[in-house]
Amino acid sequence: MADKPNLVNELQQMAKEYEPLLPIEKKLIGWSLGIGVVSIFFFYWLSVTFFPAGH
């Protein structure tokens, strides 16, 4: 039981500290979202073009 208060204190301290994203992290997030959006449109176009019966 002695570990539990220490864990709670550590989690509360971590929640208070704010670390801004690094430039490489921002690029990775942007690329991931971009690839995801492009993939959605590509697969939608692919399904409409080659499998028209489902639409």
Descriptive account of the structure:
The structure is a single chain. The chain is an all-alpha fold and 55 residues long. It is built from 2 helices and no strands. It has helices spanning 3-16, 23-50. The longest helix is centred in the middle third of the chain and has 28 residues, at 23-50. It starts with a helix and ends in a 5-residue tail after the last helix. The model has no long low-confidence stretch (mean pLDDT 87).
Count of beta strands: 0
Give the CA-CA distance, first to last residue.
Answer: 59 Å
Q: Tell me what portion of residues adopts beta-strand conformation.
A: under 5%
Uncertain runs are none
Tell me the structural class. mainly alpha
| Helix percent band | over 70%
Provide mean pLDDT, rounded.
87
Order of helices and strands: HH
Radius of gyration: 22 Å
Report the sheet with the most strands, covering strand number, pairing sense and barrel closure: none
Shape: elongated
The tally of helices reads: 2
Compile the SSE list and pairings.
Elements: H1 3-16, H2 23-50
Keyword list:
55 residues; mainly alpha; 76% helix; 0% strand; elongated
Short recap of the structure:
The chain is an all-alpha fold. It has helices at 3-16, 23-50.
